[in-house]
Design goal:
coiled coil; 13 helices; single chain; mainly alpha; DNA-binding; DNA-bd_dom_put_sf; MerR-type_HTH_dom; 2 domains; Multidrug-efflux Transporter Regulator, Chain: A, Domain 2
Length: 245
């Protein structure tokens, strides 16, 4: 392959390839008698690997370190990893298209976009005027948009969304809107909310991605009144301990 052909195959510019030659990321192949470089399939695989790593945010120095570690690997192993990367990209694109379809199908004024799985979960929840229940819906929507959650988790939450007892817990939380942070109703309510969530839900939380970061937790707590935030904080701490167990 000539430089233009390998560039088109991998999806980079010829200028990028020449730069990778210059910095030593991509070995420069021997030239044919006519002066053109002749690139092989292995060159294409290596170039695709460089592109993938830079798309993930690695610097060229970091890419060089990764490639050095890969130098002794079989071509079949590298091809398998690239194929797995493409499969993950395809899955992400399918998920984005599903969300787009849900947004296009939503009635005017409907919040979104929601994944089909979250839309189905929220459809199971009974009508309520609870302000804290509305906040929970907003938080789920935000996490869904950030890619946290997933169909398995939403399916596990389905029975909770349809349980009238959960609405009663939200109403008890609403009653703490003007309470002090040492209100005696806080501990029993937090314990009741923790007890309402079955352990099986933790099996549906994606490994490494199902728990929101500290920044989100702080922002979430800031939306509640002080006594309500204390309840939510205790619940989150209890969930963290259960998730570790």
């Amino acid at each position: 392959m000539r430089i233009g052909e390998i560039a088109a195959l991998v999806g980079v510019t010829t200028r990028a390839i020449r730069h990778y030659h210059h910095v030593g990321l991509l070995p420069e192949p021997e030239r044919r008698p006519n002066g053109y470089r002749a690139y092989s399939v292995r060159d294409a695989v290596l170039l695709a690997r460089v592109r993938r790593l830079t798309e993930l945010g690695l610097s060229l120095d970091e890419v060089r370190d990764v490639l050095a570690d890969d130098a002794g690997r079989e071509l079949a192993d590298v091809l398998q990893e690239l194929d797995a990367d493409l499969a993950r990209q395809e899955a992400a694109i399918r998920e984005r298209r599903q969300r787009l379809a849900a947004l296009r199908a939503a009635p005017p004024g409907e919040d979104g976009p929601l994944s089909p799985a979250l839309a189905a979960l929220l459809a199971e929840a009974p009508e309520t005027d609870s302000p804290t229940a509305a906040l929970d819906r907003e938080h789920l929507t935000l996490l869904d948009a950030a890619g946290v959650g997933g169909a398995e988790l939403y399916a596990a939450l389905g029975p909770l969304a349809a349980d009238p007892a959960v609405l009663a817990l939200y109403e008890r939380l609403d009653e703490l809107a003007d309470a002090a942070v040492d209100d005696p109703r806080i501990p029993p309510l937090a314990a009741a909310m923790v007890a309402a969530v079955p352990d099986g839900i933790f099996d549906a939380i994606p490994a490494g991605g199902g728990v929101a970061g500290e920044g989100f937790k702080e922002a979430l707590l800031a939306e509640f009144a002080p006594a309500q935030a204390e309840v939510v904080r205790r619940v989150m701490e209890a969930f963290t301990q259960r998730g570790r167990g």
